[in-house]
Amino acid sequence: MRYLGQPLHGLFCLASLGEAHQTLLERLCALLIEGRGQELGRATSSRAVLEVLGGELPPDWPSARITLANAHGLHARPAKILAQLAKSFDGDIRVRIVDGAVGAVSVKSLSKLLSLGARRGQVLEFVAEPTVAGDALPALLAAVQEGLGEEVEPLPAVSAQPAQVDIEPVLSAPLSGSQLQAIAAAPGIAIGPAHIQVPQVFDYPLRGESAAAERQRLHAALSEVRTDIQGLIERSQAKAIREIFITHQEMLDDPELTDEVDTRLKQGESAEAAWMSVIEAAAKQQEALQDALLAERAADLRDIGRRVLAQLCGVQSVQEPSEPYILVMEEVGPSDVARLDPARVAGILTARGGATAHSAIVARALGIPALVGAGAAVLLLNAGTPLLLDGQRGRLHVDPDAATLQRATVERDSREQRLQAASAQRHEPALTRDGHAVEVFANIGESAGVASAVEQGAEGIGLLRTELIFMAHPQAPDEATQEAEYRRVLDGLNGRPLVVRTLDVGGDKPLPYWPIAEEENPFLGVRGIRLTLQRPQIMEAQLRALLRAADNRPLRIMFPMVGSVDEWRAARDMTERLRLEIPVADLQLGIMIEVPSAALLAPVLAKEVDFFSVGTNDLTQYTLAIDRGHPTLSAQADGLHPAVLQLIDITVRAAHAHGKWVGVCGELAADPLAVPVLVGLGVDELSVSARSIPEVKARVREFSLSEAQGLAQQALAVGSPAEVRALVEAV
Description:
Layout: E1 2-3, E2 6-7, H1 22-33, H2 38-42, H3 46-53, E3 63-67, H4 76-87, E4 93-97, E5 105-106, H5 110-116, E6 123-128, H6 130-146, E7 179-181, E8 183-186, E9 189-197, H7 211-235, H8 239-252, H9 255-266, H10 271-288, H11 292-313, E10 325-329, E11 345-350, H12 358-366, E12 370-372, E13 386-390, E14 395-398, H13 402-424, E15 430-431, E16 437-444, H14 450-455, E17 461-465, H15 467-471, H16 479-493, E18 498-501, H17 529-534, H18 536-550, E19 555-559, H19 565-581, E20 587-593, H20 596-600, H21 602-605, E21 611-614, H22 616-624, H23 642-657, E22 661-664, H24 675-681, E23 685-688, H25 693-700, H26 705-716, H27 721-730
Parallel strand pairs: 9-10, 10-11, 11-12, 16-17, 16-23, 17-18, 18-19, 19-20, 20-21, 21-22, 22-23
Antiparallel strand pairs: 1-2, 3-6, 4-5, 4-6, 7-14, 8-12, 9-13, 13-14, 15-16
């Protein structure tokens, strides 16, 4: 066969996302330049092709390690000597930096050696084909040890510095009768046995007995998992949970997955290795699309993957206790939400997370008492260990004695009675004992949540998260679509006020159809108002839809992530210009206080805005410089930190000086310990999840305004959130 007048010996096709092909293409070119193209022709499988290209080296190839001693690392001169030496051997020889980020490269390529950037003190690992390894590896190690043409000073002996050796602390499970302090994430008292859920470790062979035998094993495992999932579907009372497991069944029957697995089985892989390779590749492909909904599907793929793997390996899942239990996990992530059944889960205990982490938000939304950030030791508890979880005080009692259990049971029953009484009065206004009114609104994400909010006693909607409307569509919803959604919310409110947050995406909430340049720290990058001002046509469309839907009903529009007066004025001017086209009689414009600069500018902004709404989740992480999703620091991101309270105090004082109102729509508003402090600071409105409304209203009725004001002033004068919580508990 000929192509462009030249004999064609082979065709290599390479498909990839973005620039992922670049490394493989470079390896292919190097292979051809070295005159080893015929090795590709002899490759009989995808694994063999990758081995030839150097993307995946067989584990049985001999290897050897040595520490680089050259003062300036592997720069041009020593690298040239190393490459020349490697070329004297016929087989493939590669090198990598142990624990380095770059994969193994050909030792025969000078440019690739330089791309490693190897420095003095780093460990090099050489890997060579078995046919040449016996001669090549000793020669290469000797050359490196001699300095590759340079004088080298010996490296200091590691044993001479024993003090620098890090010793991992040995964790042990909390002792029976002990008490741990954690982060109070969701109020309430829970009693029950510990049900530990930690990722299982599976050990399985990479190669299988035969394709037929492995295929039979896989089909048997898939059948068993299908039966298990069908049982979960039939037992699940919640529609959302059933839909998750129905999706899992569809994944099991995906012909593309099973076809790819079968291909790998024919190449000699075990059922376990073939199945998990295909599942992981499919999950990574979903995540590469940078779509929030598809990323959730990636988590589902891995979940179903581990189910089948457990079946193949004969590993039984830990059975749920027959009685309501305390779920103990490292952290409850978004993919775990649909699996939580409030009728089965009495409480949630996590090793990681803070008061605004997913674990906490999920628990509050479901009404499940929760503690987060308790530390890794809780994952070592024995299954079935009796636990007492106090979600109000942030305390965990391990295997408590009878007297402690009795007190907790009485308190739990008393709280349940208070909640029942609060529910009965949920439609009554929230008045302090001396008659001061506090509005209690609801946070929702879509029109479907209005009915529940009103039924729970909401006096309005304090936060409509409009980004959820945008996330539900494959492309930006047009004005008509948005208007219909906003109109449904206003219709459901029957004249109650609606506070709408304009589109807040970026950071941890990207939109697939709005590509944003990769940022080193997206939380400090283009998000919220910064993003929508860069796309005025999107912002104008949303504002028009809101104004048209209002029909002179009470509409409040607030702009997120405002950090400067200029940003506020740009958003206000755009709205006022559109208002000339679409008049609205009852309209207020405000901003969210989420950035510390906005709080400090409140005396200036209060002259121009109609209201402020404090988003305590973001305000806390920006004030304390702690990412609320950070694996080890998030537990310290507590909105009752006096520094955060100081910023709220500045905001309220500035607003009231100009006759403007202030709301709080972050998670802090639903914290029973925070309610008296916020009311004492002068906050006019608290916006919480619909489920929390009756309890928040009841909490307001428990104290007088003067008591709350005194408490707030004490809270501003202490130095930690723990001291603030202690002050409130002592009242």
